[in-house]
Amino acid sequence: MTANFSQLRAMVFDAYGTLFDVGSAVAACDDMAPPQRTALAALWRDKQLQYTWLRGLQKRHAGFDQVTAEALDYALEATGLANPERRQRLLALYQTLTSYPEVPQALAALKARGLATAILSNGTPDMLRAAVEHAGIGHLLDHVLSVEEVGVFKPAPEVYQLAVDRLGLRREEIGFVSANGWDAYAASAFGFQVVWCNRAGQPVERLPGVPRHVIHSLAELPLLMAA
């Protein structure tokens, strides 16, 4: 689908995997061999997402910090890499994940076009505050929204409605950017104008909704908006 963003008044971003590199915590631990780091990072992320979805289905919400720790415990045990010091270090590193290098410039370009900018994330307010401060992008964001306000994780519609309510805009006036395909498709089905930042070159999802455009880096976003 071609992009048509003339109605947009705000651009909302997913945080983890979109603005912040979720693999950077494990990558910073040089006490593991590269294959071990790769396996641990992949399993940790998979379990983290699975636990958010399963908790949503069970209606047993917990903060994303707890879910992240529980997913890490599973991944460490499954890969034979468990020890208390490593666990503590990885959880600390997750609070200050590295942002992708193009993030500041992309956000600044959107602000220069008069768009409001926001984060809409599964992360807790404390987690998001730490990540934003570490990346030095707080001045480029008008809102940082956490699912804790509604007590359920993405892709529940209540999460996307939170952006509508807090920004005071119609759905079609909000652009949404996520590197997570399931998130991008769910936001599209909700009614946002979605850009899927498909960093990993994944196949299209077989889910309701269709992103308006697919990019592979946020560096492409300003040019897309100017088209």
Question: What do you see in this structure?
Answer:
The protein has 227 residues and is an alpha/beta fold. The protein folds into 2 domains: 10-21 and 97-226, Rossmann fold (3-Layer(aba) Sandwich); 24-94, DNA polymerase, domain 1 (Orthogonal Bundle). The protein is 45% helix and 12% strand. It has 9 helices and 6 strands, in the order E-H-H-H-H-H-E-H-E-H-E-H-E-E-H. The chain has a 6-stranded parallel beta sheet with strand order 3-2-1-4-5-6, sandwiched between helices. Helix 6 links the parallel strand 2 (116-121) and strand 3. 38% of the residues are buried.
What topology does this entry show?
Layout: E1 10-13, H1 24-27, H2 34-58, H3 64-78, H4 84-94, H5 103-112, E2 116-121, H6 125-135, E3 143-146, H7 157-167, E4 174-178, H8 181-190, E5 193-197, E6 213-215, H9 221-226
Parallel strand pairs: 1-2, 1-4, 2-3, 4-5, 5-6
Helix pairs in contact: 2-3
Keywords:
12% strand, alpha/beta, 9 helices, Rossmann fold, 227 residues, 2 domains
Question: What's this entry about, in short?
Answer:
This protein is 45% helix and 12% strand. With 227 residues, it is an alpha/beta fold.
**If strands are numbered along the chain, what order do they take across the biggest sheet?**
3-2-1-4-5-6
CATH superfamily of the largest domain: HAD superfamily/HAD-like
Number of domains: 2
Q: Class of the largest domain, according to the CATH hierarchy?
A: Alpha Beta
Spatial gap, N to C terminus: 14 Å
So how many helices? 9
Write the CATH fold name of the largest domain: Rossmann fold
The largest sheet, given as strand count, sense and whether it forms a barrel, is: 6 strands, parallel
Corresponding CATH architecture of the largest domain: 3-Layer(aba) Sandwich
Calculate the mean pLDDT score and round it: 96
The coarse silhouette is globular
